[in-house]
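Let us begin with a simple case.
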Amino acid sequence: MGKAQKYVLLGDATYPLQDWILKPYQEDDNLTQRQLQFNYRLRRAHSVIENAFLRLKARWQVLLKCDDCSLELLPTLVLACCILHNVCEAHDNPFNEEWLEGTEPSELPKPCQPAPASMEDGRAEQVRELMCQYFETCGEG
């Protein structure tokens, strides 16, 4: 029996490095080419995620007014919009670029201050290093 697939969340420099949160290497003059490539790929992935959320909010603008509904209904509303959005995307339902006019590309909520070093998980560096090696071997993308 093989090892279960492990998933990680993408974070930026303000998040603590954990074995379940991938964050970029701190940008300085000491980064190797491989670490720079890792940071570049994380930025690209983050950009894809932000674009997906922007399209989701533009297609289902009810998500822009979630403060109008009860907290009990909110998870169901978001889930329904995600499912319908994915169905539309999978079936090449045209996305109207005009929908974006009512939506601002905003950053996802994140901590204002970098997490203290004491919150970092020492094992997480091994996960980041393995991902860095993987990105190096899987070619440009």
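The second case is a distinct protein. As before, the sequence precedes its structure tokens.
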Amino acid sequence: LPTPQVEARTLAMLQGLLQQLHAACSHLAAGARAFPSSVQDTAGHVRHGVESVQAALGSASSLRGLSGPALARSRAAVTRAQLSLEGLLEHVGQHTPLPWLLGPFAPALVEYPEDAPVDMSKWEGCVTVG
């Protein structure tokens, strides 16, 4: 059995990780506003799943204070959130233009005729796609 100090540190670390995860999910949900409503809904489901885990585990004063059903609900919420995130990433990967994902700091994607010479020195350090 873990000592009370180890248990308290473990619980504090878990609660801190949940706070970070919630902040990331809130940021994701806010960023999803540019996507279709189904993607926005998925991002919201992920955030709510994390919130439910936070509610279940956040009020615990010790690991022993967590009931089996609360842990099972938390695990199910995390699994649903993970599946939702996988679906969200799949949607973004299939339906979002590459320049939009890379942002304004990515080098421009330019097509050249096959027989035109390309000065590769200006592309040094860039990652090629394809």
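The chain has one domain: 4-94. The helical segments are 4-31, 37-58, 68-95, 98-102.
Keep these points in mind for the review questions at the end of the chapter.
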